[in-house]
Amino acid sequence: GNPKSPVTPDRQLICTTMPQPSEHLRRLDTSMEASPWMPRIAPWALYLIFLFAISSISDQWPISYPFMYTIQCVAVVWLMVRYRKLLPELTFRFHWLAVPVGIGVAWMWVTIGDWITTMRPGWFQDIGTKPFFDEDQMGPIYGWLAMVLRLLGMSIAVPMFEELFNRSLLLRSLHRARPTGVGVLQALHDMPMIGDWLVTTKWGSQIGSQPPAFRAQFDSTSYGRLSVFGVLASTAVFVSVHHPRDWVACFLCGVIYCLVVGATRRHGLGPVIWTHGITNASLWGYTIYCHYTSEQTVTLWPYL
Question: What are the respective helix, strand and coil percentages of the chain, to the nearest 5?
């Protein structure tokens, strides 16, 4: 061929016949690239949306759970894979700290949860009445399929998006108290009624004209850089999406994971993802053990 021709007719044909992203997908790509918050919060938010939908549907049709849970995890992982170039801290490097810390956090979670249940049994009566999975309705095959899928999801997909959201996005965006307060007020500034009132105040109008505080903190805080306020604030959000019985253990878990991030910052999120995955896999194994060897089911539901 002619070396001066950069594109041959065959290459032109290949380029024109390759599938192009849809209009909706192009808009999604644009949104993800517009802000560092979007690719880091979208998988977390999507998982929660699926969680509420699956809970409602599986109560009526338990057999649908394995299929819907698979869709949930695949959709979340797809988001992280598609926008991997926007997430440089998302690595899968292993660190030896993951094993002792991951197992230790699982032991702590179980021990503190059991202690709290013993101290306040009336607060958590519903925990002991909900089975791990309904073998009568799902059957052993679908029941164990749900178990294995749950293990894969909670030890692989969940640590990826939770650490990306909590120990990367929030830990950096909530680094200092004062800018975080400004960011909260800026968020309220955009809300109906509350925002209308804020613009009438002197300090409210000043805050509304300032650059986005959360974005500024994220941009100026490198991955793995810790502050007392950032650790506490990000952990508070982490605790808020867990069962009340586990709030104490979850708080300690969040602080420990932040310390792992600080100690292994040069390796990216990989070490804390491994730590989180080992913790969740250990809780899965403990739950299976209790389900088949103990008549006490009080410890089962919160873990999985």
Answer: 75, 0, 25
